[in-house]
Amino acid sequence: MNDAPIGIFDSGVGGLTVARSVLDQLPHEPVLYVGDTARGPYGPRPIAQVREFALDVMDTLVAEGVKMLVIACNSASSAVLRDARERYDIPVVEVIQPAVRRAVAATRSNAVGVIATRATVTSRAYEDSFAAAPHLTITTQACPRFVEFVEAGITHGPELESVAREYLQPVKDAGVDTLVLGCTHYPLLTGVVSYVMGEAVTLVSSAEETAKDVYRTLVDHRLMRDDALPPPRHQFRSTGDARPFRELGRRFLGPEIASVEETSELPVVGRDVAVGS
User: Fold this and answer.
1) What distance in Å separates the CA atoms of residue 58 and residue 86, rounded to the nearest whole number?
2) Which whole-number Å values give the CA distances from 254 to 20, 79, 145, 247, 260, in the listed order?
3) Is 183 a catalytic residue?
4) CA-closest candidate to residue 60, choices 266, 239, 277
5) Looking at CB atoms within 10 Å, which of 28, 85, 105, 272 has the fewest?
6) Is 62 in contact with 8 (CB distance < 8 Å)?
7) How many CA within 13 A on the CB side of residue 24?
8) Given a cut of 60, is residue 44 above it in pLDDT?
9) Does residue 269 have a pLDDT over 90?
């Protein structure tokens, strides 16, 4: 079981920010990543539909023998986390709680902002997670077009900056000193978000914190891969067109994405294709 891959999924390429952190912190662990690009982004969809799609993908990953699940999507985490932990016999890690813990530790003024998709904002998942820190003032803001920019490979430019200023103004007006990037696509826009918010505002990305949770979970459940085994083989799959996923994946994650398998059916994801090392 220790040689089984870590199953990571997102509605698109945003979850590759989590995959990148997992590969950095756990270089000897194999990763099986699924981007549900045929049905993503999840953010604009109703919570019930997000739940249905997320369970489809997770059922597939579990059937293929992954040793743990990483929900690398804030919209899916807010919709399905409780169901997932009851449904599967393997550990499940998500992206909301790690980001909340980091934000609570980072803030100096107790004013924290959260930017996220409409689905995540509507779910109030972050407000619920911050409930254990009632001394904080939380300001949330939906930024739906940010995912569109990332999925199109646009991470800078005047149009993006204009949209960012519009989205982020309410958060700036609230005087936050810490801003949670509440979508795994958003770390890919760190440059423009930091530029608009200013250097005094700490940006919290859940990717690195989630990878720390993955590490702790593997150790606690004795699921670490044996160091004597050969280098891991990673797999990346897209439920939609593999070409744009591969191009964006190489740009955002790196050479580990040597190829991407395109799969059109769920819950049966298709053949195993090993890529990278």
Assistant:
1) 13
2) 8, 30, 24, 10, 13
3) yes
4) 266
5) 105
6) no
7) 14
8) yes
9) no
Query: Residue 110 contacts by C-beta under 8 Å, 6 or more apart in sequence?
Result: 135, 136, 137
| Beta strands in 73-110, from DSSP E residues, in sequence order | 92-93
143 belongs to the catalytic site: no
93: nearest Cα among 218, 223, 184, 232: 218
* Distance separating alpha carbons of residues 111 and 14, to the nearest angstrom: 26
Predicted pLDDT at 244: 86
- pTM attached to this predicted model: 0.85
Q: Which two tokens stand for residue 34?
A: 């699924």
Q: Of these residues, 32, 90, 183, 203, which one is catalytic?
A: 183
Residue of 34, 50, 70, 73 marked catalytic: 73
End-to-end CA distance of the chain: 19
| Nearest-angstrom CA–CA distance, 203 and 119 | 21
Task: Quote the tokens at residue 247.
Answer: 């191009």
Q: Is the pLDDT of residue 272 over 60?
A: no
Which residue has 């109703």 as its token pair? Answer: 46
Burial class (CB in 10 A: 0-12, 13-18, 19+), 192: buried
Question: Beta strands of the chain (E only): which ranges?
Answer: 6-10, 31-35, 68-71, 92-93, 111-116, 137-142, 178-182, 202-205, 235-238, 261-262
pLDDT computed for residue 258 by the predictor: 65
